[in-house]
Each structure stands twice: as structure tokens, then as C-alpha cells.
Specification:
By secondary structure, this protein is α/β, with parallel strands linked by helices. The protein folds into 2 domains: 251 residues, FAD/NAD(P)-binding domain; 164 residues, FAD/NAD(P)-binding domain (3-Layer(bba) Sandwich). It is built from 8 helices and 28 strands. It starts with a strand and ends in a 15-residue tail after the last helix. The C terminus is likely disordered.
């Protein structure tokens, strides 16, 4: 009987696990901690969803209506735990067990065509017909190398919990994505003296239009993605202004949200106008507690908060098996199928802008279509990765515009339909694409 393995019991992992079980497959799930929910247990206390409660949920399992429109970190954690409880997943997940290695079963065909051997930290090894990788991409902290030495306190956003972690009063936040802006706001609201490094122009978007979460403005759905992009920029211009209204911000080089960097945050701009947050340029070097900037200025700081992202790490796979570009694994099929590997599926490694939790189910359903092709083809598999490699360009993006990702998923379903038809003479049920709101 076929068996499948899910690595990780975060939001992506439990979504994949449940859908595999619903499809009737024998599946094992390994989680190195003692809980479900992944990073939602350890993220900073001030974290809230930037997408709305009513668009950020598993299929047929909405968040409780008494949650606020933008739930807190602990509420999201509770929601994920309730999903696992409702579906009996605690009884089928192996907790406290890390995956040490995932090795392709030897074959004269492509890597993974004969399945995978998964070895656990207990020393046990098991053969699986396919592996769904859901170990997350928000845990291997990335900090850039800067000349010199900073002798104050340094904390990465992945380790930061609250302002109790900050030493002194002078704080420098490095990184201006959603997390960096959250950390700067958290410190500013607690009356710290906060600077934030912003090296390039970017777009800011409010969480709501007309008091309604931006994903739920119903009339926006009647417009095409490029039209939604324009409307969103115009609404932001009316409600929060533009870059030149805020000291230190730079003009975005991109003309659209889809082409540029976009941050969903109202409060950073608020505190900038109240003098609690100041924009500084890139860092050139450290000297003790002095930070020198690329414009020749310098300033003293007690604490640096690094919001500089994470490495996309797959520690259980030999790096020789992973094709990378700019540090990120290369993939086909909307980020699901790794280049060069059969019968392996990445769930959650593509993060299209907008609500994330529904994405995991959409990715798993696509993986299930490929699993069915492999099952029908027999022990050597169907050569799905090889087929896609000849028809799609490999993509390294994790952060990807939702409309672009939707197109990738639709194209993959079309190709899977054609593959199925060519091999069976029948048309399979067409897969779904999750339609999100504006980027």
C-alpha cells in the first residue's frame, strides 16, 4: 500500500496531512516540537494577521466570528490547534521527532522516481512513495555581514518577543518589510527612540479601506488584477498620502504594487509623523555601539533589531539535490514541484501575497493530482517533474504576486489535464485556483 510523508506540523503541514487523509492515503507526519502551529507559537507578541480573519482560514473551517478582523498571534495559534483537534490530527502526528535525512531510493531514473527513504533522529528509516515538505521558511535566521563589530544587543525578528528584550533606549531596526515595520512600531509605542533602515522606495498600504479589511472590499473583485493594483494605489494616496509626506522615505522606483515592494502597515507612518520613528539609510560599518551609515552620518544605539528575513533551508536534503537561484530553491507548478526531483512536493514554500492559510490547501490539492498520476503509472512514477520542466520556467520566488501565482497554478492544472488525457484518454476534474484580493 502506498505511504506518504509530511514533514512539519505547522499550518502548511496540518493542511497537507488532513487533505491526504481525506483522499484516502496512508500518511505519516513528523514534527520536531511537541505542538502544532509552527512559528505562531514563537513569533513576537505584537504580531497580528495582515490579512483578514474571514479570508485567512482552511477550507470549510472559518475562524471564530468573535475573533477580531485582524487576529492576534495567539488567536491564530489557537485556531490552528482547533483545526488539528477537530480533525483528530494529534493522534496521527509523531511529535518530538525530527527528520534527519530524506534520500531518494536508488533507481536508474530521475531522483525520487522510486520514492524516498526518510530517516528520523531516532535512527528509524521508512520508505515513502512521496514526501510533502512543509518545514517552513521562517526559522533559519538571516543576518547580513557588516564590517566592524557592534557591541550592543542584537536580536533577530525570529527571536524577538517584546520590548522586554531591548536593552537601553536607542533602537535601530534593520529591514523594512512587514516584520521590520511591526518591530519599529512596537518599540515606538513603548517610547523608545527608534530608527529604521530603509534603503529603497516602497509602497505602503493600509489594512482597511472604508473601515473594511482590504481583502473584503467586495466591489474590487469585479476588476482585473492590474486595475485592482491601480485602485489600491489611488486609495492609499487618498488615505495615507505618498512617500514625500513622510521624512526620509524614498520614491518607489516601481510603478505598481505588483512590481515593487509593498508593506501593509498604517502605524509606522503614524509614528514617523509623531517623531518616534526616523528613517536612516543603509549601514556601512560598525564601531562599538556606533553605527555608520552610507550617507556619512553615524549614530549611537543600544540595540539592533534585525528584520532581515530567513534562509529557505531544507536541512534533511543533501544540497546536491536542491537546485537554487539567489539562495532559494527552484520550483515549478506554482512553487510546488522542486527542480530535478520526482514525488516530492513543497507545501508553503511559495507565499503568494495575500491570505496564506488557504494557499496550503490549494498547493496540496495540486500535489494530490500529481500523486494520482504517479500512482496510476506504477512503481517508476509518471515523470511529472520531467514533463513540467519542458513546459514551464523554474521560479525561485517565495514572495510572489498573487495574480502571477494564480496564473502559474492555472497553467499547471491545464498541463496536468493534458498529461492525464494523453495517458488515459479521459479528462480529469479540473483543479482550483485560489483567487485572492489585491497584492
Amino acid at each position: 500500500m502506498s505511504r506518504y510523508c509530511v514533514i512539519g506540523a505547522g499550518a502548511a503541514g496540518i493542511s497537507a496531512l488532513q487533505l491526504l487523509r481525506e483522499a484516502g492515503y496512508d500518511v505519516d507526519c513528523y514534527e520536531k516540537t511537541d505542538r502544532v502551529g509552527g512559528h505562531w507559537h514563537t513569533d513576537y507578541d505584537a504580531l497580528h494577521l495582515i490579512t483578514s480573519r474571514d479570508t485567512t482560514h482552511f477550507e470549510n473551517f472559518p475562524m471564530p466570528p468573535d475573533f477580531p478582523p485582524f487576529p492576534r498571534r495567539d488567536q491564530v495559534r489557537t485556531y490552528l490547534e482547533s483545526y488539528a483537534t477537530e480533525h483528530g490530527l494529534y493522534d496521527v502526528i509523531t511529535f518530538g521527532t525530527a527528520v534527519d535525512s530524506v534520500v531518494p531510493v536508488p533507481t536508474d531514473g530521475p531522483a525520487g522516481a522510486a520514492g524516498w527513504t526518510v530517516t528520523l533522529d531516532s535512527g528509524e528509516s521508512h520508505h515513502y512513495d512521496g514526501v510533502l515538505v512543509a518545514n517552513g521558511h521562517l526559522w533559519d535566521q538571516k543576518i547580513p555581514t557588516v564590517p566592524g563589530t557592534f557591541t550592543g544587543t542584537q536580536i533577530h525578528s525570529g527571536s524577538y518577543r517584546n520590548t522586554g528584550d531591548i536593552d537601553g533606549t536607542r533602537v535601530l531596526v534593520v529591514g523594512a518589510g512587514n516584520s521590520g515595520c511591526d518591530l519599529a512600531v512596537d518599540a515606538a509605542q513603548h517610547r523608545f527612540d527608534v530608527d529604521i533602515v530603509i534603503r529603497e522606495g516602497m509602497f505602503f498600504q493600509p489594512k482597511s479601506y472604508f473601515g473594511v479589511p482590504r481583502q473584503e472590499v467586495a466591489w474590487m473583485a469585479q476588476f482585473a488584477p492590474d486595475e485592482q493594483d491601480l485602485i489600491a494605489r489611488l486609495l492609499a494616496r487618498v488615505s495615507i498620502g505618498e512617500w514625500h509626506n513622510y521624512p526620509g522615505l524614498l520614491e518607489p522606483k516601481a510603478k505598481t504594487l505588483a512590481e515593487g515592494r509593498t508593506v501593509v502597515n498604517n502605524l509606522l507612518l503614524y509614528w514617523m509623523q509623531h517623531g518616534r520613528v526616523r528613517v536612516v539609510p543603509g549601514i556601512s560599518r560598525f564601531d562599538g555601539t556606533t553605527v555608520h551609515f552610507t550617507d556619512g552620518s553615524s549614530r549611537e544605539y543600544d540595540t539592533i533589531l534585525w528584520a532581515t528575513g530567513f534562509n529557505a533551508s531544507l536541512p534533511f536534503l543533501d544540497e546536491s539535490l536542491i537546485a537554487r537561484r539567489d539562495g532559494a530553491p527552484l520550483r515549478y507548478a506554482g512553487g510546488v514541484v522542486p527542480v530535478g526531483l520526482e514525488k516530492m512536493y513543497y507545501i508553503g514554500l511559495a507565499a503568494p501575497r495575500g491570505p496564506q492559510i488557504p494557499v496550503y490547501g490549494v498547493q496540496t490539492k495540486l500535489a494530490l493530482r500529481m500523486i494520482a498520476l504517479h500512482e496510476d503509472a506504477g512503481a517508476r512514477g509518471a515523470g511529472v517533474e520531467r514533463y513540467l520542466a519542458g513546459l514551464q520556467d523554474a521560479d525561485d520566488r517565495i514572495d510572489i504576486v498573487r495574480a502571477v501565482w494564480n496564473d502559474q497554478m492555472a497553467d499547471t492544472h491545464r498541463l496536468i489535464d493534458a498529461f492525464h488525457l494523453a495517458h488515459t484518454g479521459e479528462v480529469d476534474a479540473e483543479g482550483e485556483v485560489f483567487e485572492g484580493a489585491v497584492s
